[in-house]
Amino acid sequence: MGVSNMKGLRAALLGLALWTGVAAAAEPPAAIYVNAKIWLGSERGQFAQAFAVTGERIVAVGSDQEIRAQAGRRTRVVDLGGHLVLPGFMDNHTHFVDSSLSLDGVDLRDAATPQEFSRRIVARAKERPGEWITHGNWDHELWGAELPKRAWIDAGTAGTPVFVVRLDGHMGLANAAALKLAGIDAKTPDPEGGEIIRDAQGVPTGLLKDTAMNAVYRIIPPASDARVDRALQRGLQEALAHGVTQIHDMSDGNWRALESFRRLRAAGKLPVRVYSFVPIADWRKLAEFVRTHGRGDDWLRWGGVKGFVDGSLGSTTAWFYEPYTDAPNTRGLTMVDLKELAQQIQGADRAGLQVAVHAIGDHANDWLLDTYDRVARQDGARDRRLRIEHAQHVRTSAFARYHSQGVIASMQPYHAIDDGRWAEKRIGSQRLAGTYAFHSFLAAGVWLTFGSDWAVAPLDPLVGIDAAVNRRTIDGKHPQGWQPQQRISVSQAVRAYTEANAYAGFQEDRLGRIAPGYLADFVVLSQDLFSIDPAHLENVKVISTVIGGQVRYSNGARR
Q: What does pTM read for this prediction?
């Protein structure tokens, strides 16, 4: 067992000790929550009926009788009507600022034909002529996998620059106006780690992959701070409606996300807890920031860095050992200079920062495991909690390495039911053995954590739990589950969104459980996830979301 897993086990056992019996409060609690089914964690496999809260923290957990006995004259009593109560869901991987801004962008996620794709873009250009059209989240697999071309939209968007991205964020379509502003033409060379797609005559089709997208991103006018803050408030309310009490935010390009969250925190307008990551290239800047400002508080924390090895499966830029089955001329690509990335990982680690790096293909995962192992050996044992973001396609030999090295598999289960529609045509059947391998990771004793990758996927943990448990692809073609041997139990999926995510953020001593001494973050659900038919998980809704003992969302529903 790796050093990280040993420490996590000790923390888990400490948490279980806290749950033994009822912690008697020194004085009557401010509120008690009774008549509920309260999940006490997958390791314990038991439930309580009630708990008590004072201030932001839980002070006691037990039976209705035990908790009611602690109430005083001023204690507020909340009857939860027999509903299931879980620790607040945590999302291990979001791109929150850009995703919040995308709520005001053109929506192409369900555009099922090239004609509909084009119609929506042209309609937006008519509504706001001359204003950049961005975001989109299109999926070319919905219309037979033909990649879009600027010729589809140029005539209807003259004078209005367009840059709409594929839902995975690793490929985008620019129209003629955007290409001109970016200075991209037939003579522009492909950048390292990216590709400009061209027609038979060498003319750019408008499609840009990975680092080639940066030429356009650099010229898109940045949103004002006021617009970002408004968008964030909208996005945070979306999170609360889905029972999300903390997000791990992966800022890939700059520090703007952290700056925005700090503004909201200073103004007392941050209703969801945030753990903010900044680009790994800025590890020195973050190390100095930590020395000057510490690591934040329980509402807003920092101290982690995010990097990239490769691209994505959908864009055929994830890095594999073998060529793509449907694109045999490529094995994918690396988005950065790997020698430089390895130096950044080591520098960040030596500075005491948490390192999280995107790796999707099997070669990318092995390279990153090798690098993490080398860094740990050179710098000595400590509680690093190194993370691999996505960990989507691995060789079977990698599971034991994840475990022995104590590396966290930071995954997003909705991707499995999305990519499962077409993954086999990309990489063939043999490589599917290590694809979205939730069960295999858990069987190997690996820390498995879950999130959304919003806005690549829906910001809804209940959708993710359904995906992990049932693995029914979104096209309805796998009702018994795609690669069903990788399905996991409801309790395992819930743990990945709660206890495991707290561990992945060094917060297992105060988040992820309903236990005395823990922060009072919890969600009340309309149905009992553990007793209903798993086929009906998709029908479960959030009734209320409580963070720090305060109701942050309530839909008033009761079933």
A: 0.86
